[in-house]
Amino acid sequence: MTDTFHDALVEPGTTDLPERFFDRFVFNLHPVDASSPTVLLGLGVHPRKDVVDGFAILVTASEQRNVRFSTALSATDGTNAGPFSWQVREPMRTWHLALGPNPGGMEFDLLWHARTPAWIGEVKVANDQGDPTSFAHLFQSGRYEGTLTIDGHRQTVDGWYGQRDRSRGVRTMSGGQGMHVWYQAQFPDRSIGFLLVETRRHERLLLEGAVMHESGELDTVVDVRHDLRFDENLDLEGGMVEVTTASGEVYEVDTDASARGGYMSGGGYGGHHGRSRGRDHLEHDVYPLDGSVAPRTLDSALTDRPAAFTWNGTPGRGIFEFALTRSRSYAYQPTLR
Predict the structure, then answer these.
(1) Domain of life here (predicted)?
(2) According to the model, what pLDDT value does residue 135 have?
(3) What's the mean per-residue pLDDT of the chain?
(4) 5 domain residue, yes or no
(5) Bridge partners of 119?
(6) Average pLDDT for residues 236-259, to the nearest whole number?
(7) How many structural domains is the chain composed of?
(8) Is the pLDDT of residue 166 over 90?
């Protein structure tokens, strides 16, 4: 783990970067006591391709609305793309995020404030094909203030939870992964966050993260075991995760992932990020959450599921990001017995 991270995105015109270099942020927004509505948003810059692209996803009880936008990075000042704008008010502490009118019927004007320190690390993975993956990243828990407007109905979101992820470098992960989990369980005084990747042979490829306390403590995650339930379409239903930290704490956290939604194909995942679409490109679609859309049917299995958690009798909310390979050679196996 490192202790510094340059929080702002690289500026337009930055040179001497690798061909596949990217710089991206992702935020989510949800109530502390409900799974709906949940907002997932993100944006990335690809300087060598002169591309900036992003997305905003709204998940309700019945549907998922997706808005994707892209433009030439050189045509921006580095703080806006399409209907979306952002500003780092105070590095590692406060961001301003705003979404203007768009076909998805959702707008927002938000301030994200950190409530815990950030876990900062580096992902290095040798791939079956192509260059190795190497990028710095962080995740951090916060709370919001501001407004969220859905179909003209405005509501305040003061005190809502929100986790963020920042990543920068070269990401070319291709083949060999069996299960991916980015886990962010939010409780009143702490956030349990980790990244876990297993191979198709059920070997651990990557594990890093921490329990991030509002008091400022970072307790490194040293082991994760799991017993999860997936349906026939590779969609997560729920299950148990056991997290062990460096201090010796063991967190047994039950997950209810029955809310559906959070399919990141709606955000352009599945190989679409960084592709040039010219200036001012905007597209929109809607996924019904009636079982007809699932990780097996989309071009990416990656899912950021709004989830309810229970730890030691304490309720929590957050995002359980998961993806299982669709290879026939793989079947999920629990590690928690």
Answers:
(1) Bacteria
(2) 77
(3) 94
(4) no
(5) 139
(6) 98
(7) 1
(8) yes
Residues 6 or more apart whose CB falls under 8 angstroms from that of 248 comprise: none
Decide if pLDDT at 308 tops 70.
Answer: yes
Cα angle for residues 195, 293, 306 (degrees, 5° grid): 40
Q: In whole angstroms, what is the distance from residue 242 CA to residue 254 CA?
A: 9
Residues 6+ positions from 100 with CB-CB distance below 8 Å: 83, 84, 85, 107
Query: Which amino acid, residue 153?
Result: H
- The CATH number linked to 125 is 2.40.370.10
In angstroms, the Cα distances linking 13 to 46, 77, 78, 89, 277 are 11, 10, 10, 22, 19
Q: What is the distance between the alpha carbons of residues 124 and 205, in angstroms, rounded to a whole number?
A: 10
Q: Is 220 a member of any domain?
A: yes
Question: Where in the sequence is the domain holding 152, given as residue range(s)?
Answer: 21-324
The reported pTM is 0.94
**What is the mean pLDDT of the segment spanning 307-330?**
96
Mean pLDDT for 108-137 is: 80
Nearest to 304 by CA among 35, 22, 119: 35
Is 52 within the bounds of a domain? yes
Give domain status of residue 101, yes or no: yes
Tokens of 117: 């320190």
Q: Is 256 exposed, middle or buried (0-12, 13-18, 19+ CB in 10 A)?
A: middle
Percentage of the chain beyond pLDDT 70 is 95
